[in-house]
Structures are given as C-alpha cells and as structure tokens.
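Wed. Picked up where I left off yesterday with AP-1 complex subunit gamma. The coffee machine is broken again, so keeping this brief.
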Amino acid sequence: MNPFSSGTRLRDMIRAIRACKTAAEERAVVRKECAAIRAAINENDQDYRHRNLAKLMFIHMLGYPTHFGQMECLKLIASAGFPEKRIGYLGLMLLLDERQEVLMLVTNSLKQDLNHSNQYIVGLALCALGNICSAEMARDLAPEVERLLQFRDPNIRKKAALCSIRIVKKVPDLAENFINPAATLLREKHHGVLITGIQLCTDLCKVSPEALEYFRKKCTEGLVRTLKDVVNSPYAPEYDIAGITDPFLHIRLLKILRILGQGDADASDTMNDILAQVATKTESNKNAGNAILYECVETIMSIEDNGGLRVLAINILGRFLSNRDNNIRYVALNMLMKAITVDAQAVQRHRATILECVKDSDASIRKRALELVYLLVNESNVRPLTKDLIEYLEAGNFVKDEVWHALIVVISNASDLHGYTVRALYRAFQTSAEQETLVRVAVWCIGEYGDMLVNNVGVLDIEDPIKTVTESNAVDVVEIAIKRHASDLTTKAMALIALVKLSSRFPSCSERIKDIIMHYKGSLVLELQQRSLEFNSIIEKHQNIRSTLVERMPVLDEATFSGRRAGSLPATVSTSNGASLNLPNGVAKHSAAPLVDLLDLSDDAPAPGSSGSDFLHDLLGVDLAPASTQPGISQAPKSGTDVLLDLLSIGTTNPVQSNSSALDILSPGQDNQKPIAALDVLSSPLASAQANSSVGASSMIDLLDGFAPSPLKHEDNGQVYPSIVAFESSNLRITFNFSKPPGNAQTTLIQATFKNLSSNAFTDFVFQAAVPKFLQLHLDPASRNTLPASDNGSVTQSLRVTNSQHGKKALVMRIRIAYKLNNKDMLEEGQINNFPQDL
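Structure written out below (tokens, as returned):
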C-alpha cells in the first residue's frame, strides 16, 4: 500500500513524521499526506473520511494549514453513526473557531443532535457547542440546552450546565431564561452536576442583577445547608482528597457565597456560622485544606462586616505565614495587603511574623513583605518599623523603585527622626554597601541631613552608641558610593547632588568635594559630565547663592505621592476666601500642591513625571530618562536655558528650541522676585524660571555665564482673532487677545489682561504658564506686580506661543497665578483649552 494513500492508518503517518531527521523532510511528508487527503476529498471517499480527518487534526497540531478539510467535519457530523460524529465534532472544535463563517452551516446538525435519542450523541453536541458557540448559535440553540438541564442522565445535565455558561457569557440577555433551571441544579446530590450548577449560578450573578437578587433570596439558605453537609459528611472514597470531602465543591460553594454576601447584610448573617465552622474545622496540613481556608478567608473579607470573623480570617493568614511552603506564604502576604484596608489592627498583631518574612531566603517573599511593612507604618509604630526597614534594606536589590521612593517620603515626613535615620543609615552603609537601594537612601539622607549626622542631633534613647562621625567621614560615604563599580547612573547622579549639598554644609571639606565632583568632568556618561561641570561652577563662582540652591528639601507631601502612585490625585481645590466659579477653564488650587501639577496637561501631550516613580525621580533630581525629540522639530544647540536647568539638578529635559530665555518652559512675570529655592524647583519635572529685572536677573545672568534673556519683539499683528475669557474666579479674571505675525502661521501672540474682581488690592502678583512639548512658550515681564481692587486697573503681559503641530493639534495651556491678598499668600490654577480653533 502506498504509505501516503488515504488508506494509511493514522499511526503509520505519525511514525513516518517522527522518523524525519530535518524540518524539510517533515514538510515533505506532510505535503504528500495533505495531497493524498485532498485527492480523497475530491473523490468523495466516504470509507476513509474519518481517518483523513484524524490525520488533518494531527497535522493541524503540528502547525500546518488544514483549512481545506473543514467541510469534511460538517459531513462527518451529518453522518448517522456515533464514531463518525465523534471524529467530526472533535475536528469541528479543533479546526474551527467561532469566527469562522462556515460554522453557521453546522447549527442545524447541532440542533438535531441535541434532540437525538442517543444520549452519547447529545453529549457530543453539548461538548462542541460549549467550546465553539457563537452569539448567533447561542440564540438559536438556547432552548434545547435549557431543556437538557432537566435531562434524566446526570452527565448530560452536567454538560448542559457547562454549555449554558458559554451561552450566558456570549448573550447576557438570555440569562433570565436560565435562572430557574440553574436554581434547580443547586439541589442536586450528584457532585459533578452540583459543581457545574454552582458555577452556572455564579456566572449568572455576574451578568444579571436580577439573578443575583433571586439567588440571594431563594438559594442562600440552601447553599449554606449544602456546605454544612459537605463539611460534616462522613468519609466518602469517591470524593475524598487528602482526608477532605470534595475540596472542589467546598471552593465553589465558598465562591458563590462570597458573591451573595457582598453588599447584603442579611445574606452575610446567614452564612456567618458555617464560615466560622469551615475556618476552624478544616485541616491546614494538606494543600487541599489550605486551598479551602484561603477561599474561606476571601469570602469572610468580602461579605458584610463581622469583626470576630475577620479577626479569625486574619489569624488564619498569620498561620499561613508560618508555613514552610513559599507559595502559601506569598499568598498570605498578598491577602494581608488587601486585609489591611479592612481591619488594620488585626493585621498589626502579626507584625512580628511579617517582619520575619523580610529575612526570608526567597526574594519575592522579601519584596512582598517589605511592601506590607510599609503599609503597616503609622504614628504609633513609626520608630520601631523605620528601624526595621532600614536594617532590612539589605533586601533592597529585589524591591521596586517605588519602595525606596516611599521610604524617602516617610523619612521626609518624620522630622523628629531625621537625626536617628541618618545615623542608622550611616551604620547600615558600613556593613551593606553592596545593596544598591540602601546606598541610594543613605546618600540622599546624608546629603539632606549630613549636619545632623556630624552634630549628633536628635539622639533617641533606643539608639545604640555610635562613635563620633566627622565631616570627612560623611563625605567618605558619598565618595565610596559614587566610586563603586556596581553603582548605576541613578546612584552616581544622586551622589553628585549630595556632594554639592555637603559643600555648603561642610565648608572645611569644600575643596575635597570639588575634586571629587571634577573627577567626572570627562565622564563618557553625558549626564555625569554635565552635572560635574555645573556643580563645579556653583562651588567656584556662585557662592553667594549656593546656600539657597542647596538648602534642605521641604517635607514631601505623602498624600500627593500616594495619590500619584494610585493614579487618583483629586482635582484642584481652593484656598482662597471666595469660592471659585464653575468655569471650564478656571479652578483654584492649594498653594502646597507640587509644581508638577501645573504640567498635568491634556491626554494628547502628557507631562513628564506624572507617575509615582517619575515624581520621586524628579524630587531627587535624578530624572535620567532620555529626552525625546518631537518629529519635525530641529534640536537647537545647548542654550542658557539648558544650563540653568542642569545647574538646578533637574536632570535631562526636553530640548528647548530657542535660547531666548528660560521662560520658554515655565515663566512667571513678576519683577524683583526673590531667588528661587533650588529644592522647590527640584519638586517639579520642569524648571520654573523667573523673569527678574534687578537682582534676580543679574544673578541669573551670572549663573548662566552671560546667557541673558532676549526680549520679545512685537511685530505687526495681521489678522484679528476673537478674544476669550481664559480664567475667571471670584477674585480674578484673565482675558486673552490674539494676533499672528505676518507669514508665520505657527506663532501666536497673546496679550493677557488681568483684572482684580475683589475689594482688596493684589500685591506680589506673579503669572506662570506651562505648555505641552509640541508648543514653545515665551513670556515677557508683566506690566507691574500690583493689581488695584474692584476692577480699577489691570495688569498686562505678552506671551508668544509657537505650535510645531499647527493644524494638527490645538493650543492648550496650564496657568498658575500667585499673589498676596491682605498679606495672605494666594494661589489659583486652571487649564485653558478654549483657544480659537484656527490658532
């Protein structure tokens, strides 16, 4: 017999394919076999049709195309015999999916087989329908499947329930047809039917609120009785696993009770007793028992409040933490992170066990335990937990950046522990200098609080004695960190910032620090080279402003940081005496909000640093992401703006197209402003440059070594555009008038007019603005910095905006206005998005 004829047995073809030594030989065998099968299909060979389809399924599993055999599936399904139908339905499930149009042709055959007198053929049709059912097939065949839920044979009822799940997911509108039949299945004695029935009810509850209410009222008590019978049932060998009767049924029952009890106090009360019984009677020495206990804890934490049960559930998780199995401990730590939002006090009782997990040999457990310890920190335990966190930072190489970012936020807020923290980190550095995360936090703290380390400020009773630390010792730590071969770019950048801060705090070490910084002036890493040159310029030429630039970091806003991590920062709030009007452009905001909010622009041009990780990088002055260049924008050479940004340790920023002034990114318009606090600048991803006319301006020119801002030249304003009210609150109204210079469609000239609506005058008036990366902004100084009361005068300021995406993207701008009202600092913010369309 020809080894590749249609009469070849399946095993012979498999043997021939496996005997191939190369992929080319295999392809040749498959090609010949497919040719023989095509010939048999063309000849309508009925004797070997089922054998040919079996071969096609094997070829399909090897990854070769078999679409030419799809119609053979339908022919076999239409056959009268069970063997042919079995191969036909198997091929249908394997070779086709619900997206194939040819599947519509099989609907009639499925309907006939679902009504067949042979229950095995009915089972084949249910299996196929449950695997490849489309929405159209679900609507056509739902009545037959619903009828089969009451079939006499339990195997058919089980398959019908599984098929019903597929139908309900495909067409949720059909859910109401299955509610009563599904409720009937919950009274089954056959465990297989009962499990599928419970799963069907679970899915019905998810897609239909009516089904959820029905099962809550009619079936909760019955499910509780069923669970009680299973828990208390005697030994049954057909269902026993590790001494537990049918743990799969246990888990399905607990899952549906969780859904029924969530948000319903009556249903929760009904199941409290049985949940307590499951939690106390289930053995935890086997995996099956642990699975049931975990589902029981999930259910207890999800249903309505019962303090005693929740304490019991958290105690079970505490026992899990002592288990030798790493998987069980990891699951327990994950669950405790959810439970802490529900009952923090109960979780606090297991703090010692959680801290032990930080010492675990498994890095994933240490990582999860550290995250949980951070969540446990509160006012009452901050001292011991901070001590433990610092000691366990040896696990730092395995935690996410958000963890050490968060630790720095905690340290910043614990002002009475700054001295203790920097001393503890100094000791830890001496023994664990190879831990990257520990090194970063230690370098940051020494840069901020190095004087506290040297002067032993804020010594606590619980501290171990420490030998005297000199200024030179503190600089040694930063020098070791920056010269470590294993230190990455972020750590070295942070070390350079710490050194320039210490140069002001430790004048006696200033020359040594300068030498260390200058060591990197020829670094191949541009970031380090740039920082080295700029920081050296600060130390050598600008000692009059150095102390201001490197003053201590302000307290970091923990709530803001947490909100940015979760992506849920609230909208702006007002601190002004009057309520802001509900205008689309104007809202007022708390003055303590970080400057990064000003850059939180529209979705099409997101501001850098909007995530928690980037925010902390910006705060630390180590935003090392490479600058991206917008298509179509030519990158200008390094300008005075760039020098200023780098001198203020902002990290790599987007290139500025014009060297006109530092106001292109974020510009206030007030004259005679005080020098900028460098650490305020570090709290935003982009620098805020002041347009100063006297001392501030001359300092900036010195700082930039001659890069002075160039004034904005006013040109003939061409076409006139309608003016808009850009911002309005109870105190202030801003009006924008627009014009364009002739022959330059990309540039828009804006004349901003500010009017005081309150009964008191504004002093120290400053206007700031920020735009997305595809825009370039230039601000002239404001006409004055006082604004008369009651609309008796105005302040004007000129803006120039260049849109590199003119005709594609509209203008958008975030603004911030600061002023003093009755000697009280006021701050208002808003977003302007109603610019005329043709700008």
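Quick read: Residues 720-832 form a domain with the Immunoglobulin-like fold (CATH 2.60.40.1230).
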